[in-house]
Structures are given as C-alpha cells and as structure tokens.
Amino acid sequence: MEEIITNIRDRRFRITVVGSGYVGLPTATLFADAGFTVIALDIKPEIVEAVNGGFSFTSEPGLQMLISRNVNAGRLRATLSSSEALGEADAIIVAVQTPIDQNKEPDLSFLMKASEEAGKALKKGMLLVISSTVPPGTVLENIKPKLESISSLEAEADFYLAYVPERIAPGKVLKEFFESPRLVGGVGSDSTRIAAELFRTVSKEVIETDAATTEVAKLAENTFRDVNIAFANQLSLICEQYGVDAAQIIKLANTHPRVNIHAPGPGVGGPCLTKDPYLLIHKAKLAQPNIIKAARQVNDYMPNHIIKITSRVFRNIGKRISTSKIAVLGTAYKANVDDSRLSPSKSIIQRFLGLGARVVTYDPCCAESFGAKRAKSSYEAIEDADCLVIITDHIEFQSFNLKRIRNLMKEKPVVIDGRRLINPSEAEKLGIVYKGIGLGERGDL
Ligand code: SAJ
Q: Which end of the chain is more exposed for a tag (fewer CB within 10 A), N or C?
C-alpha cells in the first residue's frame, strides 16, 4: 500500500477514465494536468478524435486549452479500445452515464458494462473509482461482487474500490473540480486512504468517509436543491393567485438568516436534478406523501404553467396562439451553458408548435431548437412576433433594449418572462402585456 501512495505522489500512477463525457473528460484532463499519464476511453469516435486533436466536445470554459496542453505534453490521449486503455492502468475511474428509464427507474446498464470491463482488467494493487451518480447501495451490492467474481480478487485485500462522485456544475467545471470539497468513500479504510491520496492531487479538500454514505450524500445535495426549487415554484404559483410578487417575497424571506429559497423558473432541466431524486428514493419504502416525488412533479409542471399563462393572456387580448408567431429565447437548460439536455424549452416549444404557432428560437450558447426555426439573434427571433417567451437566464438576455423589442413586435405585444429578467412596470409603460413567473395581479384569485 505504501508503494501505491508513493507512486501517486511521484505521478507514476497511470490512470484510465472510462467514459469521456461531461464528467469524464474534465476528470481525465485535470489528472493529466496534475502530472499523471491518463487515457480517456469512450465509445464515441468523435469524442476520441477531438481529444487526440487537442479539442473538447463541450464549450466548457478553459477545458479546450487544458486538453490541448496535456495532449501536446503526451500526458493525455483518448482511445476507443478497452484493452489498450485498461491493460496498463493502475487506477480506473468510471464516469459513464446512469440515466433513468421511462418508469423513472435507474438504468445501470452502462455502469455495469464498464464495471465488467474493469473487472476483467483488475490486477493486484489496482484502484477502481466510481464517479457516476448511483442509487444507494450500488457500489457494495452491485459493483463490488461483480468485480470480485470476474477477477477472483478480493476488494480491500487485493484491489481497492471507492465511490468519489463529482460536484461540478457545467460552466464552472474547472473551478469547482478543484474547489468543491471532494467526498471520498471507500469500501474499506485502505480503499478510502488510497482514493483520497489520488484525489488530493486535483482537489483543494478531500473528505474521507465510506462508499454507502457518499452515495446518499451525493444524491441528497441535488435532491435538496430540487425540493428547494419546487418550493420556490409552488410559492410563485401561490403568489400569482394572491396578487403579490414571489420575486420580492423570496428576497424578503431570504433576509432571514436561516432561510435560503431558490429561484422559481419555467422548469428544472439538466441531467442531474431531474434524475437524482428518483435515484435517492429508488428502493426506499416511504409512506405518502413523498415530498421528493411531489417536488419533482411540481418542477415538471412548470413548463405547462408557461403554456397556461400564455394561453390566458392570448384569450384576454383576443389573439389566437394558432395564428401567432412566438419567439422562445433560450434552449439551454440553464444560464450560460450550451447544454440542452432535458431543458424545459423542449416541451414548451413542442406544445406551442402543437397548438399551431409559428415558433422561432434563439440561444446564444446552444444550437438546439427543438423543432422550431432558429434565428441568428434575439432581435431576429422577436421581429414580428406576437409573443416573446423567456426560458433561459443567459447573460445576453439580461440587458434587453425593451423599446427596441416593443418596436419589433406586432400590435398588443406579449412578454412571458420565465426568469423575471424584465422590469414589469417598464414593459407595461411601453404597452407590452407582461406576465412574469410568480408575479400576480390583484383579483387573479
Ligand atoms: N434552477 C432553478 N432555480 C434555481 C436554480 C436552478 O429553476 O434557483 C434550474 C436551472 O435553471 C436548471 C436546473 O434548475 O434548469 C438545474 O440547475 P443547477 O444550477 O442545479 O445545475 P446542474 O443541474 O447543472 O448542477 C447540479 C449542481 N448541484 C448542486 O448545486 C447541488 C452541481 O453542483 C452538480 O455537480 C450537478 O448538479 C451534478 O452533476 O450532479
């Protein structure tokens, strides 16, 4: 064991990262940048080709430069070949996707396949780290026995196994990879110690615990955030009915030193918050009501609410959605990222298209348009529109010239503000029919 620790400190430890996606690629790159020789394994030729050419498949700030630096220095390369990637490794870090299926049940097929391949390559003294988000119990109940039966080796005695989840938000990956305290949970104390030593080379702070605890802690973080946002969303529906402003109320409530209500919005997207709560409750037997499930339902309802308020405004002003042009701003699931996975924009755009509207989208970061026509700028999308719907809070959308918007739009222009980026009284002064999420009018109840 001391020899392994020395090899880590001397950077003689060779690392293979299985899955070179949004988590695996920065992981591989940052270990290479810390001085290790790293191989990134993936099944997608375009990712492998990009990495070996010194490029990133995501536009994550700073990542491209780091990939290029480490590929040129000969510390980082990518491959499609498992045997090439796993044959020489001292540590294998698994960062493949663990999605949920249509029934909201975890699909561990990618993870179990990766574990199987890692199991075939296991040798005495190797470290296997799971970084994919997993349902509680997965490392001890599924992965450990699989590795032991394939390799005929024993965890802790012959090889080391730890769960080390990521805590990085797209857009801030490089900063958070280093700065977020890293939870390291081994299946035993030697596994924890070795994995902690390895992650100390890329993280400011490492917190040592055990695998089962770390699995639940990872899921608790994102579930807490999802439940908090659901509370903010439900509060905004209440405020709309009571004729008060949820944005102002949240600001006031958050002046209390023990209150921190998140921001309401047009829905919660992305690959983490939409899935992790289901992983957490997967096998738990809970009496009703289940606030975690209810929170998911509240957040999933929000895109419908956008359609509902738009329809109501159209009815009030005597226009029809079916004969209108609607500009939808933002297809990314959150501000300033190019990622549209599970974005609330998808169902909103598709519902408007289904109602017969002509839908034009614009997103400064993201090329996805979910079947709508894609404009080259916000103002091009807004031109001649009957209605502007703001879905993503990109920086570019936070400094609109409202007068210009007003002049570009058709008569009786409608603005539906899913992120509260526009000043309501300024909009109304210009003759815009404005509806913001959480902003009620007296008499709405
Ligand atoms: N959102 C709101 N209101 C808010 C905050 C976010 O409606 O107050 C929406 C966003 O617009 C977006 C969704 O929620 O649609 C998710 O946003 P997010 O900021 O939580 O970002 P993620 O999902 O990219 O990242 C989360 C992070 N988790 C926490 O902050 C607890 C990140 O640290 C994790 O690494 C990541 O999940 C993950 O991979 O697990």
A: C
